[in-house]
Amino acid sequence: MREENYQIANLGIRGSPFSCVVDKINGSFITAFGTGLVGGESGEEESFTVVAKQGTAKDIDVKIDGPAKVDVQRKDNPDGSANLSFRPMTPGAYNINIKYHGKPIKGSPFVCKISGEGRKRSTLSLGNCAEYSLKITETDVVDLVGTIKTPQGQIEPIILKKMEDGELGIAYFTPKAKGEYVVNVLRQEKHIKNSPFRIQVGDKELGHAAGCSVKGAVASAIANGSNELIVDCSNGGYGGLSIALEGPHRSNIDLFHHEERVYTIHYGPHEPGIYILNIRFADEHVPGSPFLLDVGGNPSGRSRETVTKEMETAPATPAGTTAEFILKIPGTNPFDMEASITDPDGQTELCEVYDEEDFHYLIKMTPKTNGLHILSIKHKGMHISGSPFQYSVGQLAQGGPHKVQVGGPGLEKGEVGIENVFNIYTREAGAGNLTLSVEGPSKAKIKLENRDNGFLGAQYNVSKPGMYGVHIKYDDQHIPGSPYMVNISPDSGVARQVTVHSLKDRGLSIDKPCTFTVAFNGAQGHLHATLRSPSGGHTDCMTNEMDKGVYAVRFIPKENGVHYVDVKLSDAHIPDSPFPIMVGSMASDPAMVTASGEGLEHGKCGSKNKFVVRTAGAGSGLLSVFIDGPSKVALSCREVDDGYEFSYTPFCPGKYLITIKYGNIPIAGSPYQTNITGTGRKPSPILEQSSMSVETVEKKAGVPSRKLRGDASKVVVKGPGLKRAMTNRVQSLTVDTKEAGNALLCVGMISPAGLPEAELNVKKVTATSYSVSYKVQETGEHILHIKWGDEEVPGSPFVIST
Fold first, then answer.
1. Cβ neighbours around 780 below 10 Å, total
2. I need a surface site. Which of 264, 535, 677, 737 has the fewest CB within 10 A?
3. How far apart are CA 637 and CA 643, in angstroms?
4. Residues with Cβ < 8 Å from 428, sequence gap 6 or more?
5. Distance separating alpha carbons of residues 429 and 477, to the nearest angstrom
């Protein structure tokens, strides 16, 4: 090998020094040279040339292996030379293997070192084309379990869902062979109505990517603009559609419109460059995919600042010793702060909370036993962002990046020119390298504040408003939820003058209007208020000007749990916005919810893996489970004495992340990482998510309770007693609940004077029918209420005149 150094005006030119390899095989000289044998930049085209004896270029064999697959472009020339090029999209070392007449040439494999930031991957998964309706209505799918028997006799679990029209369906039906498929759907090990279901699959139902077509921006696109794709899956059979865009920067991908298996997708890369667009249907590339995209346009001008910190293992806290740590929680009142710690046996003790300067709080506690504790930090009786925390006493476990927790206003909202603050908790994650990046329209000034016991303070200051991404990695892996997209508003200015009055933060009820007032106090601007519910919904509040500069704001909550009211003046948050409010019982506490079971740690592919979420003592609320991994999972739930048992069946091996939320707040210890082993399907090219939500009933420890599931709309009420009442004469009617499931029947009657009727009797006639009789004493209108569970039956309340 010979190296030559070339310069122009005493400056090195690209690729210098140049390497040239000369070898002799079977009496013929062969030469390899070019910058592509040495190194380059990710996303750039690299090239090299191999020269052999005239007419023998076909005997040159080249293969490239590396951190990502590359397509090699080759041109053979009559003089025996071959020009080769490739475009690596991922940084790392690529091995270039060159053979001549089947023998490696001298220096092969050549190591080409590619530098750069690596590919950013943005994805969109659409399962509409894989849904199959079973043509039956089920009011509750939580405790349903489904399996499917293929034409070859294999039995596999399936994912069930309630379709948009209310019918029960299969969420992901992807048949691989023609023939009859038999679907069994069971509740408590008994077939539901019409089960088993039989599905005939022919050629047109089989999922095949070749039947799909793509048109639109598949060769070139514009950065920071809207580029449109139209994917027609009409002739593709049943299968899931996935879109992945890989390149030097992130991209926005959204479903704009879909109708009858034709999807219109809009995407926008953040920066110009070369991107790869992968479109798959039924796990196979559609014709033409992957597409090489040349993205032009102007750069976004976004800046990215990064700081790193090596986090050491937090010191162990032996039982009986005092531990302390510091949190910064802006916008809080020291008199409304409280902290408590719950031991593994469920015993809770208050912690000491000391007010330090600049919204810093010193929290001291003395745990008495070893094991995993739950640390709750509340303001005005509601958990602060990030709480509850898991806190190990005694032996510390090495959790990994998924155990890093963050929380604070700086991850939810921000303002230019001030410090936007949040807290980072790495104690349960073990030692590792923390990376914090802020990317957006202006350069961010980032500061980290060292604290004890695995807590870390973070703050950033930016000069321009807009959308910023806060990227948090641990050992080069994004923590759950990262990147956090934060809308930084302009200097709030006059918004600081605005005040809120008469806003109740607790004691609110579902479907009961809540009103408060907003006073501008001389400020000028447009008022906008939004209600954020525990399930993630956003609803605009009604605003009405009562007087000059004084507005009434009204909203109606539809869920139990902690809601947030955002109040903005001309897009800038007013002081203390967002305002947390509790709807329903304050007893609904995620800190009292725990999860256990082997399914949270390991499991088998194709088998049911179980875990139990214990809600006894936590009140009632919305319990949600999300499972992210290389495949979707068949997820079901059944009620047990102290909570809910979840079963999930993954379809391929790998690592899955299980997130458990109560009232939209992650429980302590969540998310859990489970390792699934065994053989199964090919992993999905994108991260798949399965989820289930359950509206829990209040449970007390050791006291079993039963949730009845009835459908009041299916109750039939008839009889002469509904038409007219006669004084001092017994009237009767019947209530038929045959098709209405199981629930509690409630019957009540009010006299014209507003008092309960003196004589009202309910008698069970058969297993599903009841006889109701009454005798009235007054003339006028009598009101008859009949409820099945919590809902009025059709026609109720009945107005009966005498």
1. 12
2. 677
3. 10
4. 390, 391, 392, 396, 397, 399, 403, 405, 454
5. 12
The DSSP bridge pattern shows strands 220-222 and 291-296 to be parallel
Closest CA to 267 of 284, 283, 247, 288: 247
**Parallel, antiparallel, or unpaired: how do β-strands 484-489 and 414-415 relate?**
parallel
Measure the CA–CA gap between 272 and 773, rounded to whole angstroms.
Answer: 77
**Contacts with 329 (C-beta within 8 Å, 6 or more apart), sequence order:** 337, 359, 361, 377, 379, 384, 408, 423
Asked if residue 204 lies in contact with residue 278, where contact means CB atoms within 8 angstroms, the answer is no
Half-sphere exposure of 540 (CA within 13 A, CB side): 5
Secondary structure class of 336 (helix, strand, coil): helix
Separation in Å, CA 370 to CA 344, 389, 576: 8, 16, 38
Residue type, 626: F
DSSP state letter for 703: B
Between CA 488 and CA 135 the distance in angstroms is: 48
SS3 of residue 799 by DSSP: strand
Q: Are strands 572-573 and 594-596 parallel, antiparallel or unpaired?
A: unpaired
Contact between 545 and 580 under an 8 Å Cβ cutoff? The reply is: no
- Read off the pLDDT band of 22 (50, 70, 90): low
Sign of CA dihedral 647, 133, 282, 690: negative
Query: Cβ neighbours of residue 122 under 8 Å, at least 6 residues apart?
Result: 244, 245, 246, 250, 251, 252, 253, 267
Buried b (16+ CB within 10 A) or exposed e, 457-488: bbbbbbeebeebbbbbbbeeeebbebbbebeb
Return d(Cα 620, Cα 588) in angstroms, integer. 6
How far, rounded to the nearest angstrom, does the alpha carbon of residue 92 sit from its chain's CA centroid? 31
Q: What is the pLDDT of residues 542-562, one digit of tens each?
A: 999 888 889 999 999 988 878
**Which residues, 6 or more positions from 227, have their beta carbon under 8 angstroms from its beta carbon?**
216, 217, 221, 266, 267, 268
CA atoms within 13 A on the CB side of 208: 10
Stretch 221-227: mean pLDDT = 91
Cα 571–chain centre separation: 26
> Is 403:365 a contact under the CB 8 Å cutoff?
no
Closest CA to 642 of 703, 598, 596: 703
| CA gap 571, 529 in Å, rounded | 10
Task: Say how many residues make up the chain.
Answer: 802
Chain-centre distance of CA 43, in angstroms? Answer: 30
Q: What share of the chain in percent tops pLDDT 70?
A: 95
Region 84-104: mean pLDDT is: 87
Q: Encoding tokens for residue 307?
A: 């700081």
Are 122 and 253 within 8 A, CB to CB?
yes
